[in-house]
C-alpha cells in the first residue's frame, strides 16, 4: 500500500505529468464542501476530474500523498461524515419549517421536493473522497521525513510554530519535499504542487513572504489552496 519515494518517482519520471501532493484536509474537503461556506462545492467536480485524469493510460496528472495522510484520513472520516449528515438534517428541518410557513400564508400545500437525506449524499461523497485517496500514490514514511519533521518543530518552521508542534503536518510536508527534490534531480520538468487548504498552519498561498516560499523555490514547486486551483494548474488555466 505504501511506496518508497524512489519507486514513486521512477513511475512518475517514466510517464511525466503534473504532480499534485494532497494533504489530509484536501481529501476530506470533498465531504465538507456542501456544508462549509469556506469550501466551494466545485471541489467535488475537481476531485472527479482529477481522478479521471489520474486514471488514464498516459496520466494527465499524478496524485500523490503519504502514509501519514492515509492514517489521518482514516481517523477523521467518521467525524467529517457525521458533520455533513448533521448539517443536512438541520437544513432539512429549516426547509420544512419554511415550507410549512408558506403553506399557511398561501392556504395550500406546496411540494417539498427531494429530501437531501434520501439522496445519500454523504455516502456518495465518502466514496469519492475514498477514491481520491485510493488512486493516489502513497509515499511510505521514511526515517528522514520523521527526523526532518522534528527539526521543523524545534525551529518553529511552518507548518509548526511557537506553541504548536504540528508534527504530523511537518512529516507530510517533508515527504512532499523529498518527492519534489527526487523528481527534480531526475530532470522532471512538469509542475509540482503541494495542495492544502490548511492556511492556519501553512500560511496563505497568495500572501507575500509565505513561510514555505524558500523551500518551494528550491525545488521549483508551488503551494495551492484547493483541488479546484490544482486542477486549473494541471489544465494550464493558471501559470
TrEMBL record:
InterPro entries: DUF4935. It holds the Pfam family PIN_12. It comes from the Bacteria. Keywords: Coiled coil. Residues 20-201 form the DUF4935 domain. Residues 70-104 form a coiled coil. The keyword Coiled coil applies. This is DUF4935 domain-containing protein. It comes from Geobacter anodireducens.
Amino acid at each position: 500500500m505504501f511506496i518508497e519515494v524512489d519507486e514513486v518517482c521512477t513511475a512518475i519520471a517514466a510517464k511525466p505529468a503534473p504532480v499534485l501532493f494532497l494533504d489530509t484536509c484536501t481529501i476530506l474537503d470533498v465531504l465538507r464542501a456542501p456544508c462549509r461556506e469556506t469550501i466551494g462545492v466545485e471541489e467535488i467536480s475537481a476531485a472527479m476530474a482529477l481522478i479521471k485524469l489520474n486514471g488514464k493510460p498516459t496520466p494527465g496528472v499524478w496524485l500523490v500523498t503519504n502514509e501519514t495522510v492515509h492514517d489521518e484520513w482514516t481517523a477523521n472520516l467518521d467525524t467529517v461524515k457525521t458533520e455533513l449528515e448533521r448539517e443536512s438534517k438541520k437544513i432539512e428541518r429549516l426547509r420544512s419549517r419554511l415550507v410549512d410557513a408558506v403553506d399557511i400564508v398561501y392556504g395550500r400545500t406546496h411540494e417539498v421536493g427531494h429530501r437531501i437525506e434520501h439522496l445519500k449524499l454523504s455516502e456518495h461523497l465518502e466514496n469519492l473522497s475514498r477514491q481520491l485517496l485510493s488512486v493516489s500514490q502513497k509515499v511510505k514514511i521514511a526515517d528522514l521525513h520523521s527526523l526532518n519533521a522534528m527539526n521543523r518543530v524545534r525551529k518553529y518552521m511552518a507548518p509548526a510554530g511557537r506553541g504548536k508542534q504540528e508534527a504530523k503536518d511537518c512529516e507530510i510536508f517533508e515527504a512532499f519535499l523529498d518527492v519534489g527534490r527526487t523528481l527534480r534531480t531526475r530532470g522532471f520538468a512538469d509542475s509540482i504542487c503541494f495542495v492544502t487548504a490548511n492556511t492556519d498552519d501553512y500560511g496563505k498561498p497568495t500572501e507575500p513572504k509565505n513561510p514555505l516560499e524558500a523551500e518551494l523555490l528550491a525545488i521549483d514547486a508551488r503551494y495551492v489552496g484547493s483541488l479546484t486551483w490544482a486542477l486549473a494548474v494541471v489544465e494550464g488555466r493558471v501559470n
